Structure prediction request, 212 residues.
Amino acid sequence: MKKIIILLMILLLCGCTANKPEPVEPEPQPQPPATEPVPAQNEPDPEDKEYVYQLDKDWIVYDFTLKHPNQTYQIKDNLILKLEGEEEEAPYCKDGRCLIYDDVELNDRDIEVLENLDVQINEDYGFLNLYNLNDELFILNFNFAAQFNSSAGVIFDKDGNIVKSYKDCDLSMNEIYQNQFGLSYTDPNNMTETRFEVYTANGTELSMEVMN
Prediction:
């Protein structure tokens, strides 16, 4: 009897093994051809993007970093400075071409003295600075080189009105009194100072004293 039971079990196991299906590998499916990524529709060109900066409430001196074609600065409420430029060729560019700003606006009005310079405001050469004299009068100064007669700029009020323009001179800020600065003019033939003017900001008024 035991032999019959063992034989039946062996036959049952063999039958189960024989009926087990063999695994079948799936056939490879055709892949779609590779394509280049498609840019998103209506995505702005990086060259057209406007970079907006807001100055701190209690700022005194601001050093500009120029690296975008369109840069906007909110100096304070209702006082906006815009710099717009493009890459151009110029002898003062490091690689022959650099970003040059030929459109400088204060509350949407051109600052002509800074737009028509021989060495224009650019990303490679010179320094652009903004000075807060008394929170009512400000100086925007471009110094294209550490040499005599290399500064040009404007003094303007909190409403964006230009109080004074200057060029072909040197700007020096009073290190003790925030509301004072000097403009010195040098004779290019003998490199001697011919005139030194000291300016003092009182409210929206700008007074001047000639020192020599």
User: Anything to note?
Assistant: Confidence is low (pLDDT under 50) at residues 1-21, 31-43. Helices lie at 2-19, 112-115. The first strand starts at residue 50 and ends at 54.
